[in-house]
Specification:
globular; 13 helices; 2 strands; mainly alpha; two-stranded antiparallel sheet; 281 residues
């Protein structure tokens, strides 16, 4: 194995593979390492939810290690995270906060509009509301980091080595939506509006990376703000759908972003992000 890794001809063959083939190969290597660990854990851990959490944490840990090994060997990159956009810490921090405000503000604005239209009914906040808000951001920021590193970090970089920026933005947005929409066919039919919502979210997040000149702070913040805002309103039970309103207005599957107003809101965010650099110019 060490002789293979040290052979530059093998490395060059990997580097010259088409991007889709490299991506599939990397994922297959991860699966080959992960499955022998995950299967025994599934057998020993009886709680399905706990087993899923443990195995997914292990998988993501392998993904982080795999990124370092892959980039050092195939691309001779010593610091891949900087290439992905984790650089200029101060600017990334400012962008992260801006994204959080944009995402959270967008969710709140959407709910206010739905409430004002009578599609949602506001509820009294629970006594533990402050704890719910804290939980939202403790959960949402790491989730935003994990997903953005995967889609707008590693996947983006692999595609960008072979394709134009427009192709990369479109492909990562589509793959992001498809990856989140893998579910039984009956669930797909019942929540069909989720897909265009996810697609527009992917477009907005791709635009956020472009707007931030490749830095990851804005897409992570925007992702976390949207997830955290929905968590606060959903877990805090601040709103209930009006029984007289159709689900395509209030949100399919209990998700208000998976509604026609939600798709319009995500489209507006994407348009805003894309238009800001033009207005600067």
């Amino acid at each position: 194995m060490s002789s293979v890794r040290s052979d530059p001809r093998v490395r060059q063959r990997f580097a010259k593979l088409p991007a889709p083939l490299r991506i599939v190969l990397f994922l297959l290597i991860l699966a080959a390492v992960w499955v022998p660990i995950a299967l025994p854990l599934r057998l020993f851990i009886r709680d399905d939810n706990l087993a899923s959490i443990v195995t997914m944490v292990i998988l993501y840990g392998e993904f982080l290690i795999g990124l370092q090994v892959w980039n050092r060997w195939v691309w001779t990159e010593a610091r891949p995270l900087q290439r992905y956009g984790f650089r200029q810490a101060r600017l990334n921090g400012v962008n992260l906060l801006a994204g959080l405000c944009l995402g959270l503000g967008s969710v709140l604005a959407l709910f206010f509009l739905q409430g004002d239209a009578g599609w949602q009914i506001w509820q009294v906040p629970p006594a533990q509301f402050a704890r719910i808000v804290l939980e939202a951001f403790v959960m949402a920021v790491p989730l935003g980091f994990a997903e953005e590193l995967l889609f707008r970090g590693w996947l983006w970089d692999e595609l960008a080595r072979n394709y134009s920026s427009k192709t990369v933005m479109g492909a990562t947005s589509l793959i992001f939506a498809i990856a989140h929409f893998i579910k039984p066919i009956e669930a797909i039919v019942a929540t069909w509006l989720t897909f265009p919502a996810l697609l527009m979210l992917g477009v907005a997040l791709a635009g956020a990376k472009q707007w931030g000149q490749g830095r990851m702070g804005l897409p992570i913040g925007l992702h976390a703000g949207l997830v955290g805002g929905y968590y606060i309103l959903n877990v805090g039970q601040l709103m209930q759908p009006n029984p007289a309103s159709p689900t395509w207005l209030t949100g399919m599957g209990g998700n208000p972003l998976a509604s026609l107003p939600g798709v319009v809101a995500l489209s507006a965010i994407a348009l805003l992000i894309y238009e800001l650099p033009r207005s600067k110019r």
